[in-house]
Write a structure and sequence with these properties.
Strand content of chain B: 25-35%
Number of helices of chain B: 7
CATH architecture of the largest domain in chain B: 3-Layer(aba) Sandwich
Number of strands of chain A: 33
Number of strands of chain B: 13
Number of domains of chain A: 5
Distance between the termini of chain B: 48 Å
Structural class of chain A: alpha+beta
Radius of gyration of chain B: 20 Å
Strand order of the largest sheet of chain B: 6-7-8-3-9-10-11
CATH superfamily of the largest domain in chain B: P-loop containing nucleotide triphosphate hydrolases
Shape of chain A: elongated
Helix content of chain A: 40-55%
Structural class of chain B: alpha/beta
Largest sheet of chain B: 7 strands, mixed
CATH topology of the largest domain in chain B: Rossmann fold
Number of domains of chain B: 2
CATH class of the largest domain in chain B: Alpha Beta
Order of helices and strands of chain B: EEEHEEHEHHHEHEHEEEEE
Helix content of chain B: 25-40%
Largest interface: A-B, 24 and 33 residues
Number of helices of chain A: 26
Largest sheet of chain A: 11 strands, mixed
Strand content of chain A: 15-25%
Oligomer: heterodimer
């Protein structure tokens, strides 16, 4: 009987089924999408992390069993790679203070290149670096690695036989867990040699002796195991486990004999921050969509229950008990809802897979308990709908079912008032907490605004539509014909139009807002990406000297229109150093952000005078100095401050210790100066002048050493250096440059120094943000120079916060080398990145990466807020389409119930055209009312909340976000919806009209 | 025992903020096994009285007893039970009585669910109305649907059959078949029948007629003779066929007679 009934009401039943499936599917998609997004975030963060932040190096000493402990540590974590085990002991080489690690690590020989000999395979065999200076067959003894020989009573260092020479392949090889084992990467001391690799069997053939350090139980091998997280196997749900493992690792590290090393805390923090920006917006979006689904379900399930009201009345007439009547009424909707659940879950999973495959390729999608629960929660909205509708039907007098003109039930304001109050309170709360009023920050709560506004406006529109339509009655009575009159009368009656306006207004309002939000957001992403990247393309290259970078770019792009060299240096005032003329051709710029100044005009003012540098090429520097006699007891030293290629920071060369009245003083130049010119940057003095307490400090004499000439020795010959010592414009400081040379005062109260003028006192710069008098970091991050603004802007290429853009040449003139933090890039014009990258490779530069604006846009879109907004867009449009379908169907069902009335009208002489016009107009008025309400609600919500919704995981300080809604997209949405609505209403009207027959009156 | 007893029944309903008196001081007694045709013009209150007897409406005033039960004293459960076991209701328009997607047997079974499922009774009824159990109701002709509706109304061997215009949309042959079914139920099962009808053939076939005018019981017919009914306050409705002699609004004199009164027009 149930199935027959469902078949009898197959159209509304099918609609209920579809409408029930959609919220379930939406609710299921939400967690799946959120999980996939979380997985994407986790994988991206871990993939970008350095090797030592992707796992743990678990080390034990003494009798502890590394394999067992590591197995316990990694138990149940399926996202880890197979552990790599190893053992190691550090020991000085006999008769040397060089400490060498003697180690074995599983698979070690596959991660070095064996240039001679073979891999050690037996006890006491070792393989050493080719740079260590040993030959194959040589024997090496280590102080702490000993053995007892036959006949000996004690232990002696055991000779280890060199069986192979290796060459490191890459320290970046994850196999080594980011350890600086090899000389090229070793920092600081040169007392630690590259490791000796041995065979595992050596452990049993030797004894380790040595000094016991705190915590050591006994001298001996350190056993270790390395485990990595495999990002490709990680999912969002594994993060908790990962964090728990790290917490365990930290605890284990407190134990005696255990050391666990990892930098995984950093990625974990990053993951937490990014997923935090994803979770709330996503669930808020899902919540709104499920709410909308409930609204749809509420209306549609109600329609289905009402469609059965004649049968329910018959059941009551036949004396069915209350429980049986309720069962009779609810069975069909409940069967449909029960069928909708598995179908919805399956549809949600399929949709989730499709969405994730399209937006987050490569991320697995699996049905989780959370998703299944969300689906069930979404479906729960149908239950109260069924119960309320059934309750109304059960309470309605049976006889009302058979009256020709049912008595009109007064529509209660209570539900509307409650919903309006809730919506109003929600909006007030958002106002009160500054979510709506404070445009300075992104607030997740702002995502609730569109639903609240749409619902409130839809409820108001539902109440206003009937009286407004009634106002037009008079007009249609006097003229306009029967069609408009009938249409307006039907709309004014209310119930169907009211429900449709609510559903359509809310859904279309949300869709309008979603389109506004998405178009504004991708506009913001594009603008931010263009400015943050600086140019249409950005090629990151390996570290080189600024000069080398500029030369390579010049060679790669001789015309100068396709590429610009850039060095980025971070800091509280970050710095972009570039070639101004080239930047003007490729950099992104908006004059309206810079007070109307064009980029070419701004960059033309960045270059300073081309003052010659003072190169020092050779192995020694000599200064010819004259001065007054040095007072007794004084120690006066004169330093040449030199920039050395490849070094960060100034080299202070103590060239002269003054004595007598002058002479020539020489000092070795740093070895680098022999290969590439160093630069003289300044000359300064230091003085130690003992002073007795009763001595008048102002009576103490000051001497004035004068540097008369600078010379360097190269190839055994001294040659003069043009240091412009007599040019007063070229030197500044405590002394002066004059015809006699460079003179500076020296005394107990003053130790003069002079700096070679290579740039203006303040470097010309395009300034972004409150730079003021703060120093720019400079290429060396020594913060030695201030800048003078040639242009101020609120958005500058390559800068995301307070910073400056300066001429690379000027920046180079004030810096001592380039800091490690500096990044070297070449910005390119649109479509030129690949060609420029090839040309740069040809110049010998290492191309690390090539990024385009689209890449950065995609990265923003792939962050939590972007993913949530994308979900909002897709789901809201789907919900709007569904609401439209439901509305047309409700109108169809309502009109179908009035077929008798329409047939009577036709029998009494009403023309078919008038009936057609009545049906069409009725539906158009209702649909348009819903659409216009939704459009108004969406635009209002966009105005109220658009600038507050979360768009970035880390909102950028610059550029100012335009929040430009694309009117074309909104118009397209409205246009397509209106067109589809009109088509649907026309078809429905025609179908209904064909079903109206005068013969029906005889039935 | 009376199958139906109405005492001073008043029914008022509200339409467009106006109170409409549908029935006023209706007194009616129907004995067990009696067949009564309720006659009267449209809007006189016949259907309202039928719905009151079925317990679908509660009277605004007065008392209705059906099968010995005071409907006002019954709760919803009692009313449901009464309708399931004692009453058979046939609504105007046969399709309203049926679930169109069920076949004849299932429709009868649907009516039995409120009381007790009796397959033999269902088969017997369908035989009586000449319908096959497997025919789907929605595909039947109007006459077949009405016969099936009658079978549905009789499904639980009701003590009281309430039928509203059972022959209004039927041809003569089908109407006669329906009438025969009512008479057969009364004859063979002792079912009391109260039938609202405009059909003379029906009223002639039933044992008694009760005419309702303006919400009052105006006349009764018994064995071919028409009587006016003296109302609770002594009111008597002059039948329309005598209005030319004593038009409504005219003054009259009452003259006492040995066995009653004579009413004469006071003015020419």
């Amino acid at each position: 009987m149930i199935m027959r009934g469902l078949w009898e009401r197959r159209t509304p039943a099918l609609v209920v089924l579809v409408i029930a499936i959609v919220p379930v599917a939406s609710a299921v998609v939400g967690p799946l999408y959120a999980d996939a997004s979380r997985t994407t975030i986790v994988r991206t963060v871990l993939s970008r992390a350095p090797v030592e932040a992707k796992g743990w190096r678990y080390t034990v000493k003494g009798d502890r069993d590394i394999r067992r402990e590591l197995a316990a540590f990694t138990a149940g974590a399926r996202f880890l790679t197979e552990p790599v085990f190893g053992m190691e002991v550090d020991s000085p080489i006999v008769h040397s203070d060089v400490i060498v690690p003697l180690m074995w690590q599983e698979g070690q020989c596959e991660h070095v290149r064996i240039v001679r000999g073979r891999c050690p395979s037996a006890a006491r065999e070792i393989m050493v670096s080719e740079d260590a200076g040993y030959r194959v067959g040589a024997r090496v003894a280590l102080t702490s690695v000993v053995a007892s020989s036959p006949g000996d009573t004690g232990y002696k260092p055991v000779p280890l036989r060199v069986v192979g020479l290796y060459r490191p392949v890459s320290a970046a090889d994850p196999f080594w867990f980011g350890r600086s084992l090899f000389a090229a990467e070793a920092q600081g001391t040169d007392k630690r040699a590259e490791p000796f690799f041995t065979a595992r069997e050596t452990r049993d053939a030797v004894v380790i002796t040595g000094v016991l350090y705190a915590g050591d139980q006994a001298p001996g091998w350190a056993d270790y195991g390395i485990v990595y997280v495999d990002p490709a196997r990680m999912t969002g749900s594994d993060v908790q486990r990962l964090a728990a493992m790290q917490a365990t690792a930290v605890d284990m590290g407190q134990q005696s004999g255990v050391a666990v090393f990892s930098w995984i805390d950093g990625p974990l923090r990053d993951i937490g921050r990014q997923t935090g920006t994803l979770a709330v917006p996503t669930y808020l979006v899902i919540g709104q969509l499920v709410g909308l689904g409930w609204l749809l379900l509420f209306q549609t399930v109600g329609d289905l229950v009402r469609a059965r009201s004649p049968e329910t009345a018959l059941a009551r007439l036949r004396g069915y008990g209350r429980l049986r009547v309720w069962l009779f009424m609810l069975t069909e909707p409940l069967v449909l809802l029960a069928a909708a659940y598995p179908l919805g879950v399956l549809a949600g999973r399929a949709a989730g897979e499709a969405i994730v495959a399209a937006l987050l390729p490569g991320v697995p999608v699996g049905l989780t308990p959370g998703a299944a629960l969300a689906g069930a929660a979404a479906l729960a909205g149908g239950l109260p709908a069924a119960v309320v509708a059934a309750w109304r039907t059960a309470r309605r007098p049976v006889t009302e079912e058979w009256r020709r003109t049912p008595r009109r039930a007064r529509q209660s304001w209570v539900v509307d008032a409650v919903v309006l109050a809730v919506a109003g309170l929600g909006l007030l709360e958002l106002l009160g907490t500054g979510v709506i009023t404070d445009a300075s920050a992104q607030r997740t709560g702002a995502l609730a605004v569109p639903a609240l506004i749409a619902l409130a406006l839809a409820l108001l529109a539902r109440r206003l539509l009937p009286p407004l339509v009634r106002l037009l009655f008079g007009l249609t009575r006097r003229r306009g014909g029967l069609g408009p009159f009938l249409a307006l009368r039907q709309v004014a009656r209310g119930p169907v139009a009211a429900g449709s306006v609510i559903v359509l207004g809310t859904a279309f309002g949300l869709a309008t807002f979603a389109v506004c939000a998405w178009t504004a957001t991708i506009g913001n992403y594009a603008e931010t990406a263009r400015f943050h990247l600086g140019a249409p393309g950005a090629i990151e290259v390996g570290p080189v000297s600024p000069r080398r970078l500029a030369e390579a770019v010049r060679a790669a792009d001789p015309a100068g229109g396709a590429a610009a060299p850039v060095v980025r240096v971070p800091g509280t005032v970050s710095m972009i150093a570039t070639d101004p003329a080239r930047l003007a051709r490729v950099g992104h710029w908006r004059p309206d952000r810079a007070g109307g100044v064009r980029l070419a005009d701004a960059t033309s003012r960045l270059s300073g005078p081309d003052l010659p540098r003072v190169p020092l090429s050779g192995d020694r520097i000599r200064l010819r100095i004259s001065h007054e006699p040095v007072p007794e007891g004084w120690q006066v030293r004169l330093f040449a401050v030199v920039r050395v290629p490849g070094r960060v920071g100034p080299a202070q060369l103590a060239v002269a210790r003054l004595a007598g009245t002058g002479g020539a003083h020489a000092w070795p130049l740093p070895p680098e100066c022999a290969k590439e010119p160093c630069e003289l940057r300044s000359i300064r003095t230091e003085v130690h002048a003992p002073q007795s307490p009763d001595e008048d400090p102002f009576a103490i004499p000051t001497i004035h050493p004068t540097v008369k000439a600078v010379e360097v020795r190269s190839g055994g010959r001294w040659r003069p250096v043009d240091a412009a010592l007599t040019d007063r414009r070229r030197w500044e400081g405590d002394g002066h440059a004059g015809p006699d040379g460079l003179s500076m005062p020296v005394g107990p109260l003053v130790a003069g120094g002079m700096r070679l003028v290579l740039t203006p006192a303040k470097i010309p710069a395009i300034q972004l943000g409150p730079v003021g008098d703060r120093e720019m970091p400079g290429l060396d991050r020594l913060h030695a120079a201030r800048t003078a603004a040639v242009a101020r802007t609120t958005a500058a290429p390559g800068l995301s916060d307070t910073g400056v853009i300066v001429d690379l040449e000027q920046a180079d003139r004030v810096s001592f080398g380039v800091a490690e933090e500096a990044r070297f890039e070449v910005w390119t014009a649109a479509g030129k990145a690949a060609a420029v990258a090839d040309a740069l490779r040809a110049q010998g530069l290492t191309v690390v990466s090539i990024r385009h604006v689209a890449d950065l846009e995609a990265r923003f879109a792939g962050e939590g807020p972007g993913l949530a907004l994308l979900l909002l867009l897709a789901s809201a449009i789907a919900a709007a389409a569904l609401a439209l379908g439901r509305t047309v169907l409700a109108l169809y069902t309502a009109a179908r119930r009035r077929r008798h009335e329409l047939a009577a009208l036709e029998a009494s002489g009403a023309r078919r055209g008038a009936l057609r016009a009545a049906l069409l107009l009725e539906q158009v008025v209702t649909v348009c009312a819903g659409l216009l309400t939704g459009l108004a609600a969406g635009l209002l919500a966009a105005r109220a909340a658009l600038e507050r919704i979360p768009q970035f995981a880390e909102p950028p300080a610059s550029p100012p976000l335009p929040f430009e809604v694309a009117p074309a997209a909104v118009a397209l949405l409205a246009g397509v919806t209106a067109l589809v609505s009109l088509l649907a209403t026309a078809v429905v009207s025609e179908v209904l009209l064909r079903g109206v027959r005068v013969e029906e009156l005889r039935a | 025992m009376n199958a139906v007893r109405c005492e001073g029944v008043v029914q008022i309903y509200k339409a467009q903020d106006v109170e409409v008196v549908a029935l006023r001081d209706v007194d009616l007694v129907v004995d067990e096994g009696e067949t009564v045709a309720l006659l009267g013009p449209s809007g006189a209150g016949k259907t309202t009285l039928l719905w009151l007897l079925a317990g679908l409406l509660r009277p605004s005033a007065g008392r209705v007893r059906v099968a010995g039960a005071d409907l006002a004293a019954l709760d919803q459960r009692g009313l449901d039970r009464l309708r399931a076991t004692q009453l058979g209701v046939l609504l105007q328009n046969p399709s309203r009585n049926l679930l169109p997607y069920l076949d004849a047997g299932q429709n009868v079974a649907f009516a039995q669910r409120g009381a007790r499922r009796d397959r033999r009774r269902a088969r017997e009824l369908l035989d009586r109305v000449g319908l096959a159990a497997r025919t789907v109701a929605g595909r039947m002709s109007g006459g077949e649907q009405q016969r099936l509706a009658m079978a549905v109304a009789l499904a639980n061997r009701p003590r009281l059959l309430l039928a509203d215009e059972p022959t209004s949309q039927l041809d003569a042959a089908n109407a006669q078949a329906v009438i025969e079914l009512i008479r057969q139920a009364a004859r063979e099962e002792g079912t009391t029948a109260v039938v609202v009808t405009h059909d003379v053939a029906v009223s002639e076939a039933l044992g008694r007629t009760v005419t309702i005018r303006d919400g009052r019981v105006g006349a009764e017919g018994l064995r071919g003779e028409e009587f006016v009914v003296v109302g609770r306050e002594g009111t008597v409705q002059i039948p329309p066929e005598y209005h030319h002699l004593l038009p409504p609004g005219s003054r009259a004199r009452i003259e006492p007679l040995e066995d009653g009164v004579a009413v004469r027009r006071a003015e020419p």
